[in-house]
Design a protein that fits this description.
- The complex is a heterodimer of chains A (222) and B (190).
- Chain A is built from 10 helices and no strands.
- With 222 residues, chain A is an all-alpha fold.
- Chain A has one domain (21-221).
- In chain A, α4 runs antiparallel to α5 (95-116).
- The longest helix of chain A is centred in the first third of the chain and has 24 residues, at 58-81.
- Chain A starts with a helix and ends with a helix.
- Chain B has 190 residues and is an all-alpha fold.
- Chain B has 2 domains: 4-93, Rna Polymerase Sigma Factor, Chain: A; 119-189, Arc Repressor Mutant, subunit A (Orthogonal Bundle), CATH 1.10.10.
- Helix content of chain B is 71%, strand content 0%.
- Chain B is built from 8 helices and no strands.
- The radius of gyration of chain B is 21 Å and the shape is globular.
- The N and C termini of chain B lie far apart (66 Å).
- Classes of the chains: A mainly alpha (222), B mainly alpha (190).
């Protein structure tokens, strides 16, 4: 088809569109939705018995605050990446809270190792953690995927990875409110490991999860 | 930092987002030679048709992405990110297509048989172009978009304004007409 005719054809379909809101606003809306889902999950399953005591433990609070900050900052970055021409340095935004979160947990695991010796390494397989984190992350992740598709994911792997990190970060926070864990090493391997694995898998599958431009462009044109 | 281009294109895109078809046509028309130049620089060695395919691909992508443009931000980086995305995708498609083609570099120049002295047959490019020229504009668009560029019927429908049903009919009739013309030409040629 002749390019000039294509332009006329596209111009004839120039219906008004609503520009996407700023990434921070979109992240806030998504986080509110995710918080509602996680609050419902905690209420239905019932909070862990030692939650009141843990809420006075600065390490637990730091860990959860860092997980929350990781999730929120990753969400802002994910929404920024679906706006073509975003600044690459934004990608480092979640690095600090992520390092703090994993660092606090890793420090706890090291202290356990120093106190108990090699015995602490006899940690059990805890697939329950994986299931609860994935369950807690599922709805926020689906909502994130839908919202990312409203933009233009020109770097789909990055968008999917940051979106997954956001969902898993908040999912992990919710899970920690109702699912107790016996040691920091388990927390490091099963919680942080699941979040990072979820992020990596989503990143690798990004081109399939967020194909762009959509094959059926007419659906967006219509 | 916003350049004069950012300002001008940004204003046109803002108007396009509000449904101003004239501003949108002006924007796409002004962008097209720039996109063509950018693609030409980065894809030296491609045929003009390949470059034009990519230009049209970028224009379609700009169309589907126009809600993602933030008027508060510079326009050119937004556009270049889309161009880069389509170039990368085009390179992947090109590599896939090349992988299925057999390159024959050592063709004999002449053969003893008289048959090779005529450029005839269903695969002859000039015959095909001549046959295409006899189709109606609608049939030609249908074949170009659906059969040559590989767009889905819905995509082609969006680009041409024809209904999916009309496109199916136009494609079917165009293929039948091309077959008739090329077969007739082949018979006459021999």
């Amino acid at each position: 088809m002749d390019t000039d005719r294509l332009i006329q054809s596209l111009a004839a379909k120039a219906e008004p569109v609503t520009p996407l809101r700023r990434p921070a606003w979109r992240a806030a809306g998504w986080a509110l939705m995710a918080a509602g889902y996680l609050a419902a999950l905690v209420i239905v399953i019932s909070p862990r018995e030692d939650l009141g005591r843990r809420m006075q433990d600065w390490r637990f609070l730091t860990e959860q605050a860092a997980a929350l900050a990781t999730g929120l900052s990753a969400a802002v970055v994910a929404f920024a990446t679906v706006v073509p021409g975003y600044r690459r340095r934004l990608l480092l935004f979640p690095a600090v809270p992520l390092v703090v979160w994993v660092g606090v947990v890793a420090a706890g695991a090291l202290r356990e190792y120093a106190a108990s010796g090699a015995g602490v390494l006899a940690w059990q397989l805890d697939w329950g953690c994986v299931g609860t984190i994935l369950g807690g992350s599922a709805v926020p992740a689906v909502a994130m995927g839908v919202m990312l598709r409203w933009g233009a994911p020109v770097t789909p792997r990055l968008s999917a990875a940051y979106g997954a990190l956001a969902a898993a970060g908040l999912g992990n926070l919710g899970v920690c409110l109702f699912h107790p864990h016996s040691s920091d090493l388990i927390l490091l391997v099963w919680h942080c490991g699941t979040v990072l694995a979820f992020t990596a898998v989503a990143g690798l599958a990004g081109a399939y999860l967020l194909p762009w431009p959509p094959r059926d462009r007419a659906a967006l044109v219509a | 930092m916003r350049t004069p281009d950012d300002e001008r294109f940004g204003q046109l895109m803002r108007a396009a987002q509000q449904g101003d078809a004239g501003a949108y046509a002006r924007l796409l028309t002004e962008l097209t030679p720039r996109i063509r130049r950018t693609i030409g620089h980065r894809r030296a060695g491609r045929t003009a048709a390949d470059v034009e395919d990519l230009v049209q691909d970028v224009l379609l992508s700009v169309h589907v992405a126009r809600a993602s443009y933030d008027p508060a931000r510079p326009f050119v980086p937004w556009l270049l990110a889309i161009v880069r995305n389509r170039l990368a995708d085009g390179a992947r498609r090109y590599a896939r297509r090349s992988a299925h083609e057999v390159q024959v570099e050592d063709l004999d120049v002449t053969f003893a048989g008289s048959q090779t002295k005529f450029e005839t047959g269903l695969g002859d490019g000039r015959d095909l172009r001549r046959a295409m020229a006899t189709l109606s504009a609608g049939q030609r668009d249908a074949v170009e978009l659906v059969k040559l560029r590989g767009l889905s019927l819905k995509e082609a429908s969006a680009a041409t304004g024809m209904s999916v049903g009309a496109l199916k009919v136009a494609t079917h009739r165009a293929i039948a007409a091309l077959r008739r013309k090329l077969t007739a030409g082949d018979t006459h040629g021999h």
